[in-house]
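Title: Prediction job returns without error message
Component: structure pipeline
Severity: low
Priority: P3
Assignee: unassigned

Description:
Job completed but the reporter wants confirmation the result is attached to the right record. Sequence as submitted:
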Amino acid sequence: MEKLAIVILNWNGRKMMEQYLSSVVNYSRDDATVYVADNASSDDSVEWLKNHYPEVRLICLEQNWGFAEGYNKALAQIDAEYYLLLNSDVEVTHHWLQPLLEFMDNHPEVAACQPKLLSVADKDSFEYAGASGGYLDRYGYPFCRGRIFDTVEKDMGQYDQPTEILWATGACLMIRRSDYWEAGALDGRFFAHNEEIDLCWRLNIRGRKIYVLPDSQVYHVGGGTLPKNNPRKTFLNFRNNLTMLYKNLPEEDLRPVMCVRWWLDYLAAFQTLLMKGHVGDFKAIFRARHAFKRWRHEFDEDRKKIQASRTDHHSMPERKPYAILWHYYAKGRKSYSQL
C-alpha cells in the first residue's frame, strides 16, 4: 500500500496541466505518488501527459463521469493510506505536503484536511473555493474563513491557526482512504458542486473531524470547467445543496429549514433577474428546485443510513446557528472575523 496518492482529475485540462503539474511533481517527489485520472478528455491531454510526464501514473476513464463519480472510479483503483484530491489548476509550494501528512499521522481522529487556499491571480488574497476552511450556516449556505459569498479577504495571517471546520475544499482535499469509503465516498449523482461538503458533513455526523492546516498553502485558479454565472453551475449548486440538506439535516431541522429555503431560493431567482439581469441563472434556479423535487426520494435510503450513523459523543460543527444572509446583507458583516 502506498502512503499517499495525489490524484488529479482531468477533463480537457492540458493547458492547466502545462502550467501547474510541474509544481506538483517537483514538490511531491519524495512524499507521494502522482496520478492523473482522465475523464475521457477530447483534447490531447493524455498524449501530452504521456510525452511530458511519463512518471505520472495515468488512469483513463471510459466516459466523463463528472467530478464526484470520476474520483470514485479512479480512487477505487488506487491502494493508498491517504488520498489527496487535487484540481488541475492548483499550484503547490515547497514542503506543502509535510504539514498535512504529519498532522494526519498524529491525529487519527481526523478524517480529512485542507491547506490554506490562496488565489493565483492575487497571491495575497484567499481563493473563493475554500479559503482557510469552510462552514455552513443554519440554512445550508456555505462560507469560509476568508470568503463570504462574493467577498474574498486579503490574507494577513488572520486565519493561520489550525482549526476544526465543517468542510474542506475539493480543490485540495487530503482524506484517509478508510474514511472515504466508510462514509460512502463522494455522491456520484451530484456530478459536480457541493459533493465535498456533503462528504465532509457525513464524516462529521459519524464523529470524524475535518481540519484546515494553514501552515500548508497552495494557489488556485478557480472556476474550473464552468465559469462563474454559468447557468449550468447555478443549477448544480442549487440542486445539490438542497439534496445535501435533505440527506444530512437532523430530523427536527429538516422541515423548517426546507420551508425557509423555498422562500430564499425563489427570492434569489428574482434577484438575479431583476437586479443583475441574469435570465439564465433565473431559469436555472427554478429548474434546480424542480429537479430536487423530482429526485429527492431517491435519497430516502441515504438519509436513513446517515441519520442512523449520528454520534452523540462528538460536538459537531455541522452548521453555525445563525443566518449568514442576515449578517452579510443586513448587518454588513463581510468577513468571517466579524461574525
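Comment from assignee: result matches the submitted record. The chain has a mean pLDDT of 94.
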